[in-house]
Design goal:
- Chains A, B, C, D: Pfam families: Csp.
- Chains A, B, C, D: This is Four-helix bundle copper-binding protein.
- Chains A, B, C, D: InterPro entries: Csp_YhjQ (IPR005560), YHJQ-like (IPR044543).
- Four copies of one chain form a homotetramer.
- Chain A is mostly helical.
- Chain A has a single domain, classed as Substrate Binding Domain Of Dnak, Chain:A, Domain 2, CATH 1.20.1270.
- Chain A is 78% helix and 0% strand.
- Chain A is built from four helices and no strands.
- The mean pLDDT of chain A is 95.
- Chains in contact: A-B, A-C, A-D, B-C, B-D, C-D.
- Chains B and C meet through α1 and α2 of B and α1 and α2 of C.
Amino acid sequence: MSHEHFKECIEECLRCMQECNHCYDACLKEEHSGMMGECIRLDRECADICAYAAQAMSRNSPFAKQICSICTTICEACGNECKKHQHDHCQRCAENCFACAEACRKMAG
Amino acid sequence: MSHEHFKECIEECLRCMQECNHCYDACLKEEHSGMMGECIRLDRECADICAYAAQAMSRNSPFAKQICSICTTICEACGNECKKHQHDHCQRCAENCFACAEACRKMAG
Amino acid sequence: MSHEHFKECIEECLRCMQECNHCYDACLKEEHSGMMGECIRLDRECADICAYAAQAMSRNSPFAKQICSICTTICEACGNECKKHQHDHCQRCAENCFACAEACRKMAG
Amino acid sequence: MSHEHFKECIEECLRCMQECNHCYDACLKEEHSGMMGECIRLDRECADICAYAAQAMSRNSPFAKQICSICTTICEACGNECKKHQHDHCQRCAENCFACAEACRKMAG
């Protein structure tokens, strides 16, 4: 599979990584950050798997499909948590998580 | 420089990575996790640089010394934050951070 | 699941990460490194998933089992490649890969 | 410092990460990959620091500047190696490395 083949999915993963990290940073600064524990935790999980998946696809890893499969699961879990919270950063993060989950699901095939 | 040369410093980094991640998980579960924001943030920073430094040293990276230099800085910052908190996981994490900072400082030379 | 629960599997992953990176470095220096392409590639894949799995387990990731499942697959692939080559670093790496695959398989349950 | 502040530098790092990984994959497949050892090694070093720097900036790491400083060094080393080789993937990688080094140098301030 070629570098180009992965292009769209890599871009979704890198966008999702950035939004998750932004949400993580913003959650840590919220006045009631104590209520945001699950969101903080899942933001890190999701940013890390997205970074890992993007690296794997861009080096044409033989394991890219399986990595995208687990990335789908983690993006969905993070999106489901984030969408419960009214903060703009959580809502925007949820949207990016679901878009990334969709791209990874196709890639995992 | 050889794999063996790095052995002690790699071990300190990997121990510190584990303690930082353990402290991160425990802080997220504390009743007053809202007060633990800086600790959570620095635990992640420190776990990530320690993992990165251990990978770099074990693959004999030409940049291992500079990476250990920044690892020293981050370990000290994390240790200084953790030692402010009375939780056992914070105190143990602080100890590991300072030990790792010391090993990385020697390596950075 | 607790930090301690993961202890043995984390240790196997971190040992395997180091041996894979050592093998990667040594393969790049071999006179006939052109024949070692698959070994170099899989050493990086395996070191990276092992580092990722160890981080995930030590922060008590909700996705630790699935991550260990894919780690099993990658460790086996790397071990199977490395055991084809007579270099000491390849043989030692293969042994560590198979031991890590076994620990991750149990964890993935 | 805000998420937006880092935007351009994050984008350069993520582009550079992809080109380095693409060059790494292509070098491993070259007929004379034995001559490409330093390029393969530096491509991995550079992809990994770029991924790490992008993660750090997007989570508003207190250490983003120091991380960008070391990223500058590694991007330049990788660019200098890649530009020695005539392959298209090496030449394109070199260009991206130098552009990323420039963005990181500004960020490191």
